[in-house]
Design goal:
mainly alpha
């Protein structure tokens, strides 16, 4: 129901929100759309909207290649850097750790400099990190350069829902689906193309990984234009002026829904990063070639392209998203069962099922918007749910690597993955209930 989406996601009349106090030139103060006080303003507003749309899609495409390109060449990187299973498990835990640590800084940075500036800096960090990490020398340098790229991803992760809320307040479900679809496309592209591209470029994993920096450089351009635009400059000035005036409107930690959503986000992130980091190795150990294992990971990731567009639109038309959570969880359980009993024989089916299950990510992003009714609520819930969630997800990939190293097989690690899917369904169903964090935290308009 479109009315429900508008009711849930739009600020209350007269409420001072991040959207209203930081609206850029060419956008109404209440965030409802472009101003109509003259042809020049209309043209500028249309230009800004198109630029944000392009920037949003390009940024989303760059939010996962740093991870899935590494997954496709994980064995070569491990051998090249002389890692054992436990150290490799730590490497797969670096993404959620960086997302948790740096993601919590995003709201403060956005208030200080404006969201567009922070996302632009994030794209620069991604490009620099991807270019440097293959040639940094040794595991510590590789980890440090990876952390730089992941820092850029972390702040952009948190601010994507904020930018959608600000520039497209009446199309939150549609735009969340669009950038989730672009994110899935970038994830799948890196998983499928990294091995063939590495072979074409001479077979060096260092060259194959560094090439993804070029895609991040392209993503910098629209954000650079946006922050140099007069509307972008005014957005930063307004954010700086209002920083001292903003106080804590409510405590997000008082909301049970916020905690449920954070746990749901953490468990789905655990499953996603275990899948991206270890699934190609599971297939390769079962006798699948390296190239095919990369394509299987790409199939898992590419399932998010159509479903990431559909699921947010369906979710915003439901008062309770619990049934969607249950369906996605059931697909995950079926996929893990297949990996346990017949990893090579049914590889394509398991990749498809796990791809469907991984669409819990765009669902979680959509629920961030639906479980908050003000701009301030979106910013705080996004930062809390994602940062706390990524903290929760840190032990998973490391534990899988340690179990694999200790047992020499994938039976116990896959059983662990399946076991974590059960609490994911439970907390996701709790987070899907029709309520807002502002009401639960005692906020009053």
């Amino acid at each position: 129901m479109a009315d429900d989406e508008t009711r849930t996601l739009s600020p209350a009349p007269g409420t001072m929100t991040d959207d209203s106090i930081e609206a850029p030139t060419g956008v109404n103060p209440d965030g409802t759309g472009p101003r109509t006080d003259g042809p020049r303003t209309d043209a500028r507003a249309a230009w800004t909207t198109r630029l944000v749309l392009v920037g949003l899609v390009l940024a989303a495409i760059n939010l996962r290649p740093a991870i899935t390109s590494l997954g496709a060449l994980f064995e070569e990187v491990r051998d090249g850097l002389h890692m054992n299973g436990s150290v490799a498990g730590v490497l797969t835990s670096v993404p959620p750790l960086c997302f948790a640590v740096f993601g919590i800084m995003a709201p403060r940075l956005a208030r200080r400099f404006g969201p567009a500036v922070v996302v632009c800096a994030g794209m620069v960090a991604i490009a620099a990190g991807l270019l440097l990490r293959p040639f940094a020398g040794g595991t510590p340098g590789f980890l440090a350069a990876s952390a730089l790229a992941l820092m850029g991803i972390a702040v952009s992760n948190v601010l994507m829902p904020v930018i959608v809320k600000r520039y497209f307040p009446d199309r939150v479900g549609q735009m969340t689906g669009l950038y989730s679809m672009a994110l899935a496309l970038g994830t799948a592209l890196a998983a499928a193309a990294t091995v063939p591209m590495t072979d074409v470029l001479g077979g060096s994993w260092r060259t194959g990984l560094s090439m993804w920096a070029l895609l991040a450089v392209v993503a910098v351009l629209p954000w650079l234009l946006l922050v140099r635009d007069p509307s972008g400059r005014q957005d930063r000035q307004t954010a700086a002026r209002t920083q001292a005036e903003e106080g804590p409107a409510f405590r997000i930690t008082r909301s049970r829904t916020a905690w449920a959503l954070a746990c749901f986000f953490g468990l789905q992130a655990t499953a996603a990063y275990i899948t991206m980091g270890w699934m190609p190795q599971i297939f390769r150990d079962a006798g699948v070639s390296a190239g095919t294992a990369g394509v299987l990971l790409a199939v898992t990731m590419v399932m998010g392209v159509p479903l990431a567009f559909v699921i947010p639109r369906v979710a915003t038309r439901m008062r309770n998203q619990g049934p969607i959570v249950a369906v996605l969880g059931a697909c995950g359980l079926a996929g893990y069962a297949g990996l346990y009993f017949a990893p090579a024989a049914g590889a394509w089916a398991w990749a498809l099922l796990l791809g469907i299950s991984n669409c819990a990510f765009p669902l979680a992003l959509t629920m961030i918007g639906m479980r908050s009714r003000t701009g301030t609520g979106v910013v705080r819930l996004s930062a809390f749910a994602q940062s706390t969630g990524y903290l929760i997800s840190i032990p998973g990939p490391t534990l899988v690597g340690a179990l694999y190293d200790r047992t020499g097989g994938w039976g116990l690690p896959i059983a662990l993955m399946a076991g974590l899917m059960v609490p994911q369904i439970v907390v996701g169903s709790l987070a899907g209930r029709d309520r807002t964090v502002e009401d639960e935290a005692g906020m009053r308009d």
